[in-house]
Design brief:
CATH topology of the largest domain: Arc Repressor Mutant, subunit A
Number of helices: 5
Largest sheet: 3 strands, mixed
CATH class of the largest domain: Mainly Alpha
Structural class: alpha+beta
Helix content: 25-40%
Number of strands: 5
């Protein structure tokens, strides 16, 4: 129950009107660190929310991303993934199993004369290789 309240607060903080579906998707993304696709979110939530549709999930994650309440990841060539952790961090995608892991990273600052006058509003760092399980 506490996580639903946290998701409602996150929605309100980002100027999004809470609804049952929006809170459920936000809660899912905040509690599942798997970087899911729309399909994964829908499959996991639909048994408990019969009125949920894939279109609703898609529109919800689009809205959440537009309001910077979640991150949209394009690390997977085949699927867009979503991340409820909006703190600065990098992502690692295993080339074998396809799992995506969070890596801590300190905020990178670009100090170069060619970058003067630019305002960076978002940084995404992606790594790829083989995870611990797959490299063995």
């Amino acid at each position: 129950m506490n996580s639903i309240l946290n998701s409602k607060k996150r929605l309100e903080k980002h100027g999004i009107k809470p609804s049952l579906q929006r809170m459920a998707v936000m809660d899912y993304l905040m509690t599942h660190r798997t970087h899911p696709t729309v399909e994964m979110i829908f499959n996991d939530l639909s048994p408990d929310i019969p009125t949920l549709s894939k279109t609703t999930v898609y529109n919800t994650v689009k809205l959440l991303a537009e309001h910077e309440a979640i991150l949209t990841l394009n690390i997977d060539e085949k699927n867009v993934r979503y991340d409820g952790d909006i703190s600065p961090h990098a992502h690692f995608r295993c080339k074998l199993c396809g799992n995506i892991h969070d890596f801590p990273i300190e905020r990178m600052e670009i100090k170069h004369p060619e970058c003067e006058g630019f305002t960076i509003s978002e940084t995404q760092v992606y790594y790829s290789g083989f995870c611990r399980n797959c490299k063995n």
